[in-house]
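Troubleshooting: if your tokenizer reports a length mismatch, compare your output against this known-good record of 317 residues.
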Amino acid sequence: MSSIAVIVPCYKVRNQILTVLRGIGNEVSQIYVVDDACPEQTGIFVLENIQDDRIKVIILSENQGVGGAVKEGYFAALADGWEIFVKIDGDGQMDPKLISEFVEPIAARKADYTKGNRFYDLEHLNRMPKVRLIGNSILSFMNKISSGYWNIFDPTNGYTAIHRDLVKRIAFNKVHSRYFFETDMLFRLNILKAQVVDIPMDAKYGDEVSNLKITSVFGEFLVCHVRNFFKRIFYNYYLRDMSLASVELPIGIVALLFGLIYGGSNWYQYGHQGLTTPVGTVVISTIAVLFGTQLILAFLAFDIASVPRRPIHHRAQ
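Known-good structure output:
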């Protein structure tokens, strides 16, 4: 039986935290409640209102964001020697009864990292607020491109589990500490070639107010996704390894840009003079665009097929 530690980052979740903690089953060995400098003093509230020897409260002197709080929980669980770390939020939207489902693929060496997917069951999507549904769909597509996990959806889902071997190998000082944390983790995991598995789940939406406003973080997420995309391509296709796809991408981009710029500029110049664009010019630009597009599509096909599908962690004996 794997030893399981649960990390619960807390910020303005005083009204829901006791219900969440009481719902965590006996399969869990340790529970780390990380008070992220919460103005409601959630950590002290937990100590005063619940008796559970498994609970350890970590109170941060400064707010570090959800990612920073989770990191502190990971470090504590790693120091205490637990094997699999599960992270759930303290706002009551994640069912603690699902913990075993998140742990099982990792314990069975079928995954290195598991995460929730609220989009798996289409019948449950009607319960999700429309703004969240549209926003998460856009963020999921951006994540597929930047992280390389084309088979993963719902990247901002914070219900996750990870093996200690991966925690030891990730440079957490470089991982985003706030709302981009879960998405940035996927990028770091892809660099390690870790296998990630989605776990179907149904989110619960009550009276709690989400601290994540997709409209306010979209610009920041876009910048981070673009940065991670170029880093991943450089690391995986040029620095650590090379393949036919390493050649297809730059040639495809150059050909596509040449076709668009050459064809567009000539079309504008001849049209401005009231002349018809020569057939040769049209043919050259069209061939360049088609050739470049085909090479880029070939690269994408290779990238999609390269999603890590074997776990890399070694279970503790």
